[in-house]
Design goal:
14 strands; alpha/beta; binds zinc ion; Metallo-beta-lactamase, Chain A; globular
């Protein structure tokens, strides 16, 4: 027997038709503030012929102490104060991106939906505000299976949120989380993360393809292995007309700490030594090849360049332009 039930998409469609929603929706200015009236939830830029739209899923905070567990607390405090940052609470944006190239629309990560913290889960709302339909997404590339990147893969009805997309994730990443009895092999405090990852990776409705290093998602978009933050973490490279962009995921996480103190590793970095080695390699590549970078947790929209600076690097944000179409 087939049980008919409205999907979240149906409900959203119904909601969109309701007058109350129509009234509250602002005129679609390019920089409308769709979530809280304070700031834009999407940002467009281009890399050669590729059109990119950064889509915010929101933000959350973590412990500033945890971002450099191999550094002295005094050192972290001094670093944060010198960068006009909160010395205790680390504010993390969550920046997804849709890459439009040829006939393809590739989304990187799916956010956390309503399963993580209340300040995240804005991606679908902001995607809609940007004018990109959920059914237009052709590919979803998952960098890794942490809550803020994958827990939103299914909706409240357990359906995959992008019905027409091919889903891709690193084979190493998939296999690590899905390893038999993984939940009992991790610390008690990490068990909910494992359960959430397994639930997301096994959600009905989406077909996940496990990919290896240097996997071409579509012409001009490649997934590369950038392990450390998680065992099978992957980043993406967008190349078009001689321009390139490195989408770092969490391999580079903070525009000041990760760039100026790349040797510091965080509580959440699963393999500290590999995290640092990968990060230095990526920073070197971006600086030497003058690649733009886009990082998931950088201040929105998280796009810019890195340049060498002594023994480390410096982040230069891209200039925000209000009139990009
Ligand atoms: Zn993250």
């Amino acid at each position: 027997m087939t049980i008919l039930r409205p999907s979240r998409r149906d409900i959203l469609k119904m909601s969109a038709m309701a007058p109350a929603f129509a009234l509250s929706a602002p005129a679609l200015a390019k920089v409308a503030a769709p979530t809280n009236g304070q700031s834009a939830g999407y940002f467009r830029f281009s890399v050669g012929a590729a059109k990119l739209t950064v889509i915010s899923d929101g933000h959350f905070t973590s412990s500033a102490r945890d971002i450099g567990i191999n550094a002295e607390e005094d050192e972290i405090t001094a670093f944060m104060v010198a960068h006009f940052q909160d010395a205790t609470s680390h504010y993390e944006h969550t920046n997804h991106v849709v890459i439009e190239l040829g006939d393809n629309k590739v989304l990187v990560d799916v956010g956390s939906g309503n399963r993580f913290v209340s300040t995240t889960g804005r991606m679908l709302e902001n995607l809609s505000a940007s004018g990109i339909g959920e059914d237009e997404i052709t590919h979803v590339a998952i960098t890794h299976a942490h809550p803020d990147h994958i827990w939103g893969i299914r909706d409240d009805f357990d359906e995959a949120i992008f019905p027409n997309a091919d889903y891709l994730i690193g084979a190493t990443e998939f296999d690590w989380w899905m390893f038999d009895d993984r939940v009992n092999l991790v610390d008690a405090s990490d068990q909910s993360m494992v359960v959430g990852a397994v639930n997301s990776l096994t959600a009905t409705g989406q077909q996940l393809t496990r990919v290896g290093n240097d996997h071409e998602v579509v012409p001009g978009v490649t997934m590369i292995a950038t392990p450390g933050h998680t065992i099978g973490h992957m980043s993406l490279i967008v190349e078009s007309e001689g321009h390139s962009l490195l989408i770092t995921g969490d391999a580079i996480r903070d525009p000041y700490v990760s760039v100026e103190r790349p040797e510091w590793y965080a509580q959440i970095d699963m393999d500290p030594e590999t995290t640092v080695a990968t990060r230095k390699k990526l920073l070197d590549m971006a600086a030497s090849d003058r690649m733009a970078i886009l990082s998931y947790h950088f201040p929105f929209p998280g796009v810019g360049h890195v340049v060498a600076n002594g023994n480390a690097y410096r982040f230069i944000p891209a200039l925000w332009q209000w009139n990009q179409g």
